[in-house]
Write a structure and sequence with these properties.
369 residues, alpha+beta, 4-stranded antiparallel β-sheet, 3-stranded mixed β-sheet, 18 helices, 11 strands, elongated, QueG_DUF1730, oxidoreductase, 4Fe4S_Fe-S-bd
Amino acid sequence: MNIKKYIMDKSKELNIDMIRFTDSSPLVDIKDFIMERKNLGYSTEFEEKDIERRINPKIILLDCKSIIAIALSYNIKYNENLNTDLKGKLSRCSWGLDYHKVLNNKMKKLIEEMEKKVKFNYSYFADTGPLVDREIAKKSGLGYYGKNCTIINEKFGSFIFLGYILTDLDIEEDGIIEGYNCGECNLCLKACPTGALEAPYRLNPKKCISYLTQTKGDIPYEQRKKMGINVYGCDVCQLVCPKNKYAEESSNKEFLPLRTKGYIDIKELFKISNREFKNEYGNMAGSWVGRNTLRRNAIIALGNMKKGENVSFLKELLSLNNIDFNLRKYIYWSLLNIDKKLGKEIIGDGIKDRIDIDEIEKLLRYFKI
């Protein structure tokens, strides 16, 4: 039987938007780029540290012969009149159900269909695997690299989730689709709020708002100002991309923001327990960073709103006994960012210990007070 055609037919039944095939040879084209990033200090805590594991499929699955690359579009059109006071913005990737779960479920079902026809070894991943999924997508022909370092598909644009299945099956590969690129367009570079896109096809993740909302490390003062009201992720470089303007709308209704409406209620975020957070937001992709990381981002968002009415809420947070220094220092920043004079008066009353004093002194110097 023609196993490739069978897989493609089953993928359509499972509402998988795109499926392509490539071989198991090492992803040599990306190796120098990974080394360059490492030498520049651009590697993040979320990346696989072993470079060979990032480029060689046979290290992950010893008898790997072919890779099935799949993509789901999350180019969802959703507009609802919403009062965004005290609301933090969520990236489209975290609007609906957790894409890791959706992708894994579809790949698992596809594998089950394949197993009805052939016995094989496999391993599958949705974003969390060690291999560079974007390079697999490029190599298989799912799309090409945009200047913002996302994978762009001519039909679905760049709002696509990527997954891959390593197999020991011999499947005819598709290969790279030639002739597509960004041309002279550099709208994404111009639009990036933090200048994270330092050159075409060169992203400094340490400046990227999407990374900043996920890291548990300290966020520099100047970067906080540029985060806006983003509580998880950032879509700016994709929203300005002309390829997304005319991209086909996704039919994957799992990604509609039925629960969140595309925002997260900041007051609710501070009222609910960790268990309630998991119940309320556990099915959201961005929930993996944890309640406290989202709370930190929400505090930054409150400061960037520059609204006087947010001061009372921040002051209320400062008085809570369970607010530790890792959140207090962001409250101090937000209060000063809204109103230097009033903020200085409030934080003077909220000092808990020497650590607070040191941080406040640094902030006062930064804000030139």
